[in-house]
Design goal:
alpha+beta, Beta-lactamase, 5-stranded antiparallel β-sheet, two-stranded antiparallel ribbon, binds 6-diazenyl-5-OXO-L-norleucine
């Protein structure tokens, strides 16, 4: 019998609402600190196009680090395996903005989803694109099936003004020769990509290519190859939640990615994507309610990649 995902989502959503909303909205990007901390949205979209949402599922929020997945997909498809000479694919076991491993690793970031890795990806975008910002927006429009997607210039500027750690990382990697452009240009692009806004509905749709072997459902074009989709999903599973990646895999059992805007996207290959948004973060920088919701969701569906 086909599972009733709508019923499971409604039930889990109602249950999580009755529980305490723990954690903290991040204040290191002042513009993000003023988001209503009790916002809570969920959206599920499967490969047939069936979609179901709960709560604030249509309200746009700052996707932050979730945009690292779009940037990686774009760069990996263009560069191929050569990419891995500049960024590794190992879990870091450290916070998203940690600098600690860069010296021992000679300026090669552990993976593309920690900040150091995403900054290298931005540097590559600056090398290979004429207009990286517009090309990334066009890529996200294509995978999300949207006419327009925007940067939030206020959020980007707010992060730029507080980018001391990202600046330190970029300069440090440049000293090893792993950043080619000017650090300011790399950080500007990075902060703009973090500032992209999507709703849970848009997010759950925009990740379907990764649940569908690299192809947007209903279209013939591969955004990325089957093999690359498999590899990105593998990195999502092992590195998508920084030093909480093991915990997410253990509790939820799906590849996924979080952002400090409070969003989490998770996907069940060959089946569906599910996006959750709740701004209060746990001590590892992942959405407190997002983690709880997805843990309960995969418990009730009894489905995971394991
Ligand atoms: O680099 C930063 O600090 C943020 N703009 C993005 C970090 C992020 O979303 C990490 N998430 N968990």
């Amino acid at each position: 019998m086909k599972k009733d995902y709508s019923q499971i989502i409604s039930r889990v959503y109602a249950d999580i609402l009755t529980r305490e909303n723990c954690g903290k909205v991040p204040d290191y990007i002042p513009e993000l600190a003023c988001i209503g901390e009790n916002k809570f949205g969920v959206s599920f979209t499967d490969l047939s196009g069936f979609s179901y949402g709960a709560g604030d599922c249509s309200e746009k929020f700052s996707v932050q680090s979730i945009s690292k997945v779009f940037a990686l997909s774009f760069v990996y498809e263009k560069l191929g395996e050569e990419l891995w000479q500049r960024v590794d694919v190992e879990p870091s076991g450290t916070a998203f903005n940690s600098l600690v491993q860069l010296e021992a690793d000679h300026g090669i970031p552990r993976n593309p989803f920690i900040n150091a890795g995403a900054l290298v990806i931005c540097d590559i975008l600056l090398e290979i694109c004429k207009d990286p910002k517009q090309e990334m927006l066009a890529f996200i429009c294509a995978v999300a099936g949207e006419d327009s997607v925007f940067f939030n210039e206020k959020v980007a500027a707010s992060e730029m003004q507080n980018s001391y750690r990202n600046a330190a990382m970029t300069n440090y990697m440049k000293s090893f020769g792993n950043i080619k452009s000017q650090p300011d240009a790399v950080i500007d692009l990075y902060c703009h990509l973090c500032s992209i806004e999507l709703s849970c509905r848009q997010l759950s749709k925009s990740f379907l290519y990764l649940a569908n072997g690299g192809r947007i459902p209903g279209s013939e074009t591969h955004v990325i190859s089957i093999s690359k989709a498999k590899r990105i999903n593998a990195i999502l599973l092992t590195c998508g939640f920084y030093d909480e990646s093991g915990e997410f895999s253990f509790l939820v059992g799906l590849p996924g990615k979080s952002g400090v805007g409070g969003g989490i996207i998770a996907l069940y290959p060959e089946h569906y994507c599910i996006a959750v948004w709740s701004p209060k973060l746990n001590e590892k920088g992942n959405s407190y309610r997002g983690m709880k919701f997805l843990e309960e969701f995969t418990t009730q569906t009894a489905e995971s990649i394991f």
